[in-house]
């Protein structure tokens, strides 16, 4: 198989799959490698994987200290793929993307999360004090804030995908894959 074909298969796999193993240099394991199963979305225009990692996620903490990472994806997760063969069989496609993870922050998402938590706490206090009507209103408001926060996350992801002007991916394919 030509290098271009390896790269084409790798791009297809990263686009078709939705999760993989994100390997980092662990801050918790004193520099040992650490692999974490993560879901991702691939940008339509570049194929660049996008992750939503919270500050509590071990991989996000590792990347904050050292942004070098590898995402490994296997065809086995796709419906009907590799069903008759061992996942390690060469006919079951696998791809590893290595490089530096870029952090993109959206402060509005944090505002939405804090607002959601605030309304939730207010609703719980109202419930504890016996004010059921206010408690119900706060719970309904919480759902609205949660929806708005998720919409901000999705919207910012789309915005970043459209604004991405650099042709080089945040994670580049290993040289073994032909790029």
UniProtKB/TrEMBL annotation:
<protein>
    <recommendedName>
        <fullName>HIG1 domain-containing protein</fullName>
    </recommendedName>
</protein>
<dbReference type="InterPro" id="IPR012349">
    <property type="entry name" value="Split_barrel_FMN-bd"/>
</dbReference>
<keyword id="KW-0812">Transmembrane</keyword>
<dbReference type="InterPro" id="IPR007667">
    <property type="entry name" value="Hypoxia_induced_domain"/>
</dbReference>
<keyword id="KW-1133">Transmembrane helix</keyword>
<feature type="transmembrane region" description="Helical">
    <location>
        <begin position="108"/>
        <end position="127"/>
    </location>
</feature>
<dbReference type="InterPro" id="IPR055343">
    <property type="entry name" value="CREG_beta-barrel"/>
</dbReference>
<dbReference type="Pfam" id="PF04588">
    <property type="entry name" value="HIG_1_N"/>
</dbReference>
<dbReference type="GO" id="GO:0005739">
    <property type="term" value="C:mitochondrion"/>
</dbReference>
<dbReference type="Pfam" id="PF13883">
    <property type="entry name" value="CREG_beta-barrel"/>
</dbReference>
<feature type="transmembrane region" description="Helical">
    <location>
        <begin position="143"/>
        <end position="162"/>
    </location>
</feature>
<feature type="domain" description="HIG1">
    <location>
        <begin position="77"/>
        <end position="171"/>
    </location>
</feature>
<keyword id="KW-0472">Membrane</keyword>
